[in-house]
Design goal:
eleven-stranded mixed sheet; alpha+beta; 2 domains
Length: 238
Amino acid sequence: MKTACLLFLVSMSAAAKAPGNVINCDPADAEHCKATIIEGKPMRELVHEGTSVAVGKPVATAEGDYRIFVQVRQVGPGKAEVRPKDFSALYSDQAHTRFAFYDKAAEINQRIREANRAQQTNGGDELDNPRRPTGSGAAQSTGGSSKAAKLGRLRKPDPNEVAGRQDETTGLLRSAPQAGTIVTPEELYLSQSTLRRGDFAEGFVYFKKPRRSKVHVGLSDPLCEINIPVNGIVFRFK
């Protein structure tokens, strides 16, 4: 019985020490882990079995989240399977609080939909309930001074004007590498619902602390670990 218990403890200890499918980005390993510049951004790149994963410097936000630019390239045979929802990071506190992937693209899409609904609702109210001019009868009869005369007859919203307002709402999604080009949230961020299987994927990734966590994130506080799983391998940056 003692022998069986001893063998069980030894096997458990060996399993705890097993590194698993994790590739660490060690700055001393210049062959596989190196500093590079990608699209004008300083990044760290880790290459393993034909897959390249690069991460930029984590940037803390005022909300206590972290924003990181991530690029995945398949430089060898096969395809790279990227599941952003599996990304994670560890904070630099004593407990190494785990920050989970946050779908920023979904949040921005929701805000755009709400803004569009509000514009449509306001436009409908103006058509259904035109405002009556206020003031004395004499003031109402002088068309030059009344609001109705200034605004002219009621008309349907110009589609070009509506599109212009939507462009202003979407203006925050402008791409830095190509200034002036409007991009969708899915093009700017890696989305949680996206399964990318191909040769290339890139975008900003947000990491959010647990909802009930009392950790206070300073704007200069670093992350101690970033984990990017690709093809069953965890590319770990410390």
